[in-house]
Amino acid sequence: MRWRLRLYCGHVLERTSHYTHKTLHNAFTGATSCPECGLDPATIVGGEAIGLEAEPKAARVPAAPSAAAKRSGRPTKADLEARVGALEAEIERLRQG
Question: Would you say which domain of life the source belongs to (predicted)?
Fold first, then answer.
């Protein structure tokens, strides 16, 4: 969950908390540190929930199954080989990144 917080020192910042925290004080226990002026703890005097933190785009878009997989419920050998190739490419990208 993304929150926009107004601190006692006057600064406004955005912070992330676990999505199960439904109130501001459950998420941050009423205080946090200010990265701009260094006040620690800085009392939270106001805040609002902005929304859920976005997931990476690749994680949200599932791969479309082929027509053969839709018919039989099982992917074809070509589908599996393509999926393995895509996963190996992603592993390599993650190792280098």
Answer: Bacteria
